[in-house]
Amino acid sequence: MGSHHRPTAGQCSLVQPPRLITCLLLLLLLLMSSPLTFPCSASSAVITHLPGFHGRLPFYLETGYIGVEEKTGTELFCYFVESERNPDTDRLVLWLVGGPRCSGFCGVVYEVGPLNFVLEAYNGSLPRLVYNQYSWTQMASIIFLDSPVGSGFSYARDPNGYDVGDISSSLQVVTFMKEWLNDHPRYCSHNFYVGGASYAGKVVPVITQYISEAVTHCKGDFVNPTNQLCANVLSTIHKLMSEVSDGNILENKCVKAAPKPTIDVSASRALLEEYNQLHKPPIRPSIDCLPYRYYLSYCWMNDNTTRDALKIKKGTIDEWLRCNKGVLPYAQDIPSSLNYHFNLTTRGYRALVMRFTIEYANNLTFATVKGGSHVVTTNKPKESFAMGKRWLANKPL
Questions:
Q1: CATH code matching the domain that covers 18-215+291-392, chosen among 3.30.1360.180, 3.40.50.1820, 3.40.190.10, 3.90.850.10
Q2: Which PANTHER family does the record match to this protein (predicted)?
Q3: Cα separation of 291 and 392, whole Å?
Q4: Residue 127: how many CB atoms within 10 A of its CB?
Q5: pLDDT tens-digit profile of 36-61?
């Protein structure tokens, strides 16, 4: 594969030996080709202050849009936080959020980013923000991306642009990274990683493969069981699961602050705000429940001072939703990403999946954070930070 060279401004090429190609649920090194031929709009702004945060931000924050499809006018919005340690040599990470169609802002304030909401009773004023002492930006520069289109502040001028799925949105992420690196040539020679949590764990290996190419009773069907034995087993499981939090069995089962639409037709109408887009705040959960911070983000993001501070284009997104799971079409057209995992790891790519620590052949490692939830970086930030720091530095977990 050869060694890499530093590209000139306006072009971006990056080639690295497989031994340097790494992933974190999954993080994998980028192989870039020449810029795309069709024009893509790009706009960015440096943000030094945010509403609700006292004083100047203690890190470099940049927000902006990059066009990824000219025909539909699709533009993806991102938050870029430069490494607080040594941005000239530290790794560059693209961090995706689950859903699909949850905002990349979740990564900034709930997962591995440099901000947290102050967990205090909401009184009508703007929620406050504080610095996250376990931010992964202490060891890497991170791009938090609103993807697929319709997530966060990413938008399309043509309504047909929102009709995407696993494959098409993954290709748009590849386009985004090409254009982003064209606009930020100083990062073209950096080790680059792609990562994320929840549903992102499905598409990250797909995106990575595109990048690396420059492009028992139930018989596997647990949705529509074909025999009574399977149906009875699934029914028992569903009844038991209804009594615990599906994100973390160690937590109390709390009212959701609209992280995703509910399928319980008897639920409060307010719980369906993201599905029906009712343009009103979601029901307020108890402050001791994890979803309370989601409630705070809804209030913070839909304030005009916040929109102005982040340089959001007026008229593009009416109501910001943490996870936009409503009327927008999305095709889950990749049934499984296991083949992508296999293809990448057998080609020499290192991989880390957060479940339990076992090392397999082909540089594949599974790791567990004790007590971790569905998104382990959310409820175990200290432990996740320690794991990520060791793994990114190629040290034993």
A1: 3.40.50.1820
A2: OS06G0520000 PROTEIN, SERINE PROTEASE FAMILY S10 SERINE CARBOXYPEPTIDASE
A3: 30
A4: 22
A5: 333 345 678 999 999 999 999 999 99
Are 275 and 326 in contact by the 8 Å Cβ rule? The answer is yes
DSSP 3-state of 39:
coil
* b (16+ CB within 10 A) / e for 34-72: ebeeeebeeebeebeebbbbeeebebbbbbbbbbbbeeb
| Structure tokens given for 234 | 């699934």
Give the integer Cα–Cα distance in Å for 215 and 201: 19
Give residue 45's pLDDT: 92
| pLDDT tens per residue across span 84-139 | 999 999 999 999 998 899 999 999 999 999 999 999 998 889 999 999 999 999 99
Burial of 125 (0-12, 13-18, 19+ CB in 10 A): exposed
The dihedral formed by the CA atoms of 182, 184, 188 and 193, expressed in degrees to the nearest 10 = -100
pTM for the whole thing?
0.74
Q: Where are the domains of the chain?
A: 18-215+291-392, 228-276
The angle formed by the CA atoms of residues 199, 84 and 383, to the nearest 5 degrees, is 50
- Cα dist. 76→5, 66, 176 in Å? 28, 5, 8
Q: Mind listing the pLDDT tens digit for each residue in 241-275? A: 666 665 555 566 665 554 443 333 333 333 333 33
Residue 255 corresponds to which tokens in the numbers above?
Answer: 């009212």
- Could you tell me which residues are beta bridge partners of residue 196? 96
